[in-house]
Amino acid sequence: MKIITLLTAFICACTLGITAFAEELPAETEIPEIIQKAAPALQIDNAHIYEHMQQSYAQGYEPRTDSGYAVIVLPLCCADDEKPESVRISVGLDAGSSAFIIKNYEQTVPLAIHPADDGSEQEIYLAEFWLELSPERVNGCYPVQLSAAEYGSYTVYVNITDGIDPNAKEPEPPVTTPPEEPVILQPKILIQSISGGDIEAGETAELHITLKNTSHTEALQNMTVTASAPDSLTLEAAADTLYFERIGPDAEFEVLFRCKTAAGTPAGIYDMPLQFDFAYGKGMTGTGSGKARITVVQPVKMQFPLVVIPSEAVVSDRLELHLQALNLGTVPVSNVRAELSADGLLPEGTAFIGTVAGGTSAEAVLNVQVSSKRGADPYGDTSGQITFTYTDESGTDHTEIQEFSITLKSPFSNRVSEPKQADSHAWVWIMTGIGGAILLLSAILIFRRKRGAS
Asked: Would you tell me which CATH number, out of the four given (3.40.1350, 3.40.50, 2.40.160, 2.60.40), belongs to the domain 42-160?
């Protein structure tokens, strides 16, 4: 009985100790809940049409089938401010379907700016899949599941109409020839027009060259145009290469090069070579070349010294006018001639000087008969002009005019060459001088005679 009492007391003591120890244990540490940010949602760009698309998604986009391929274009846009740099997109095909050849079509699509049909540029993820069609495909509408990892999945329906007709009674055997890869021809670049190609030697020309991408379907990427200066000409630009990020199909664009010529550059036609380098299609590169034509002309520098014409002339006189032509340029001029026209002056035809080579001069004489003026007053002041005409190497005529005035006098008037009659006041002074001299001489003689008598 005593042993039972001791055991009961020991058990109670252990129970109290365990309870106390349990109350002293600290509360279990609470782990904070980690909230993970959800991936941004990607949405299909319904409004725009991109390359290889015939209509937008809003218009009922349907992938086109061509040359044994179904081309699926998936434009995705992100409204979130923090856009992922790229999206991994995979294609899910039904293994039991006979429409497509099962392959791994997964690709990483970067965020980039792509041109749309309305001329705008959109920052999107533009995925493009070329799904190879099975030779034994059956006509119908097939869903294709496109998955963009954690950003969402999208279903596109491919309508096949060139396969086996399931309703045909006697279907034709399927074509066993493998599909050919689509052939993409290299775009060509042509020079459409050139302005500013005519330049005088010693001057600077601005060549505005219009180029065109002749491809109706392919755009040009990373386009460069490099110019090379022909002999005797130099390019004034710091760089001889111009860069264009994108040139659309059938698009025209302009390049500008400044070209300078030396003063002694011979006249003629010079070709400035152009080199084109670009990318197109799916990473393919292309080249091209052309020539910009520049026409250099030497300037014509003619000078005609002023013709000496008397200020007055008597009717019936004959004037001999000496004409001179100075060629201060380097190119010759031809058919140099002079014509005089004035009321009261009758030239004897045209004074023909002829051809004047560069750096030389030539002369001619023009005889002019002095006549009376037309009208009531046949004499007096009249005016006229001498017209010099010459032809340059290109066949263009140039003219320079010298104007003059002259006084026509009657043949009965005093000529300029006749001595003028002395003025009456001059004779008085002359006679006074002579008389004074006589008186002075007489006084000297009388003085000497008186001195000798004494």
From this structure: 2.60.40
Q: What is the largest CA-CA distance in the chain?
A: 221
- Start-end ranges of CATH 2.60.40.10 in the chain? 189-297, 302-409
Neighbours of 203 (CB within 10 A): 14
Enter the tokens of residue 109.
């699509």
Evaluate whether the domain defined by 302-409 bears CATH number 2.40.150.20.
Answer: no
**Residue 12 phi, psi dihedral angles, 5° rounding:** -65, -40
Of 327 and 183, the structure prediction assigns the larger pLDDT to 327
Six token digits for residue 318? 């004959």
The Cα–Cα gap between 107 and 115 comes to 21
189-297 in CATH: which number?
2.60.40.10
- CB atoms near residue 144 (< 10 Å): 23
Quickly count: other Cβ atoms within 10 Å of residue 112's Cβ.
13
Residue 220: CB atoms within 10 A of its CB come to 24
**Mean pLDDT to the nearest integer, 362-379:** 90
Distance from C-alpha of 204 to C-alpha of 261, rounded to nearest angstrom: 6
Express each pLDDT in 35-46 by its tens digit.
556 667 788 999
Per-residue pLDDT reduced to its tens digit, 184-232: 788 999 999 988 878 888 888 888 999 999 999 899 999 999 998 887 7
Got the DSSP string for 167-199? T-SSPPPPP-SPPPPPP-PPP-EEEEEEES-EE
Query: Which of these, 344, 335, 338, lies nearest to 322 by C-alpha position?
Result: 338
Please state whether the predicted TM-score (pTM) of the whole model is above 0.70: no
CA angle 246, 247, 251 (to 5 degrees): 160
Question: Quick one: tokens of 93?
Answer: 């095909």
φ/ψ (deg, to 5) at 75:
-90, 120
How far apart, in Å, do the first and last CA atoms of the chain sit?
220
Q: What is the pLDDT of residue 334?
A: 95
Measured between alpha carbons, how far is residue 97 from residues 68, 170, 372 in Å?
Answer: 16, 21, 114
- The residue among 96, 179, 59 whose CA lies nearest residue 130 is 179
Closest CA to 212 of 231, 188, 239: 188
